[in-house]
From TrEMBL:
Keywords: Oxidoreductase. The keyword Oxidoreductase applies. Residues 17-160 form the Flavin reductase like domain. It comes from Corynebacterium marinum DSM 44953. The lineage of its organism: Bacteria, Bacillati, Actinomycetota, Actinomycetes, Mycobacteriales. This is Oxidoreductase.
């Protein structure tokens, strides 16, 4: 039997992939003078030379049309305790930036103050990837928080780190 003989449902794939914990990011851009932002957990490093990261955004996202090649982009890796921001930036029809402490970098992109890490750059490529669009980002600036531990996402919810055992 080959993989081509198998049929995997979306629910099966979601359950299996959901066992793999990932970080949680807030991705932002500036569009027509306004901040646009959304929660993204599909984020990873891509290249050290040149410095690049990659993320994928659901094609159904209302923010996706603003994430175009050449657009400035910021990625904030949320820290432990920032789970409320992950939820806030995933809700449609609200001001996602209301009450959020921001730092501006790069070409004015908003970054979440207190994030575990941050990246500012520009979208270089957009590729179709099933029901998502894969975006590659050239990183112009990046940094880390003061020993902040990242917020984790697994099995459909966010998790703070367990207390250190060491």
């Amino acid at each position: 039997m080959t993989c081509a003989d198998l049929t995997v449902t979306g629910d099966q794939l979601k359950a299996a992939v959901g066992t793999f914990p990932s970080g949680v990011t807030i991705v932002t851009t500036r569009s027509e003078g306004e901040d646009v932002g959304l929660t993204v957990s599909a984020f990873s490093s891509l290249s050290l030379d040149p410095a690049m990261v990659v993320l994928s955004v659901a094609n159904s996202s209302t923010s996706l049309p603003h994430l175009t090649v050449g657009a400035p982009v910021g990625v904030s890796v949320l820290a432990e305790g920032q789970g409320g921001l992950a939820r806030q930036f995933s809700v449609r029809g609200i001001d996602r930036f209301a009450g959020v402490d921001l730092v501006r970098r790069g070409r004015g992109v908003a970054l979440i103050d207190g994030a575990a890490a941050w990246f500012a750059g520009e979208i270089v490529n957009a590729f179709p990837g099933g029901d998502h669009t894969i975006l590659t980002i050239s990183v112009a600036e990046c940094g880390t928080g003061d020993d902040a531990r990242p917020l984790l996402y697994q099995r459909g919810r966010t998790h703070d780190w367990a207390a250190d055992a060491s």
